[in-house]
Structures are given as C-alpha cells and as structure tokens.
Input
Amino acid sequence: MSMRRAVCPGSFDPIHKGHIEIIARATALFDEVIVAVSTNYAKKYRFDEDERIGIARQTLSSLAGITVQPMGDGLLAEYCREVGANAIVKGLRNATDYQYEAPMAAMNRHLTGVETVFLLADNQYTHVSSTLIKEVHSLGGDIADYVPRAVLSRLNSSR
Ligand code: ADP
Output
C-alpha cells in the first residue's frame, strides 16, 4: 500500500500552538506529514528561513511522522507533486480563512489534482495568528499560552 503523505504549508513566522495543533491532528490522518516552510523572497520576516525551520523542527521533534522542509517561493501544487504528497492540510479559523483558502484549494486541484483537507481550528486558537502574537509580544503582552517555550525565548531575546 502506498504512503499517505500530506503537506502542511505556511510561513511559520513563528510557529505557534494553533499551527502545532493542526499538524498534530494531520499526523492522525496521514502516514507522513511534511511541514513545508515557505519563503516569499520579497517579504520581510521576523525570523529568517533557517530560524523558522529550526524552531519548527525543535518544537515538533516529539511528534512522530513529521519532517520540516523548506519550500521556497514556488508553486505549492508543484512542491506537493515533487515530494509525492496528494493532500494539503490547512487549518480554518473563520469565514475569512475559508474565503481566502477556497479559491487556492480549487486552483491547486486544477493544477495537479492535489486535494486540500481543511481542519477546523480548535476553539482555544481561533484568534491566534503569528502576526497577532508578534504584535502583542512587542507591546509587552503575555503570549505564553499560545507559543512553545522555544518561540517565547527567541521572541524575548530578539525584542
Ligand atoms: P500564512 O500561510 O499566511 O503565512 P501561517 O504560516 O501563519 O500563514 O499559517 C500556515 C497555516 O496554518 C495557515 O494556512 C492556516 O491554515 C494555519 N493556521 C494558522 N493559524 C492557525 C490557528 N490559530 N489555528 C489553526 N490553523 C492555523
């Protein structure tokens, strides 16, 4: 039987517990989950690509069946074909996420046949995004409930 392999894509700048919860649930559905760290080379990040990958690897190391890989700024559908994944897993927080994601899912299926599987975000993380975490932390707010310890210490040391 062939391996069921999924890709969880994102910029993960930085990874937070909302991401980790979705990735963990994806491992229950697929034999192998590739966390694909994307980089848009025209965009500014708080953590560079190596740091985002390193933090994600460290944070996800206790979960089986996961690899963390760079995916650059190419087409996600092509990346999935290259790594032999027939599914993309995404978390949905709200209707705005859905409206943004639905056309991309349809286009990706058109391009290569890759399916997108949406998992509803857990209630405790529907308001959590990397952008909000960085903003609240930079203003002195406590975001410890939403990020792994490795992220908190890196945010503190680069403040
Ligand atoms: P982007 O792709 O906009 O850079 P991120 O890298 O932050 O977004 O997130 C990657 C993916 O993780 C998103 O496509 C989204 O599906 C999912 N995600 C982000 N935040 C959450 C959350 N709080 N709960 C569940 N899923 C989330």
